[in-house]
Amino acid sequence: MLVNGVTIPDEWIDKQCELLDISIQEAVDMYLADNGVVENSEQNELDTKAKKVKINHGATESKERKKVERKREPNETKRAIISSLINAINEIEGVENAKITNVEKYIDFAIGDRTFTINLVEHRKPKH
After folding, report:
1. Could you tell me if 111 and 124 are in contact, meaning their C-beta atoms sit under 8 angstroms apart?
2. How open is the CA angle 92-112-102, to the nearest 5 degrees?
3. Residue 57 has pLDDT above 80, yes or no
4. Is 125 inside a domain boundary?
5. pLDDT recorded at residue 33
6. Is residue 124 part of a domain?
7. Does residue 38 or residue 73 have the better pLDDT?
8. Taking CA 39 as the corner, what is the angle to CA 16 and CA 54, rounded to the nearest 5 degrees?
9. Is 58 a domain residue?
10. Global pTM?
């Protein structure tokens, strides 16, 4: 449909009439107003009122959080396991450069041109 030099798709008009239960003329007027072809003083007034309203979405100034220094207790069980594992690894034939890279977590070593890392992980008790 051609109105005021603007082509309005018939499918759009039919869809708006069905969805909004409006007449064809109302759908055409809505299309022209939405696309800025016709001035709608009521709509313009509502737009200016809406632009003046500031919406607070709950966001506030970002507060700087204090960094909490956490004192970590040494895990003697893991240290004992790592110590036992390094001794066992050193007894394997061909092992080179065996070293503890973290006293409670990692052991790195090499056999020939291949390198390996053992990572010790303690799992939490399952929740029941």
Report:
1. no
2. 65
3. no
4. no
5. 79
6. no
7. 73
8. 85
9. no
10. 0.46
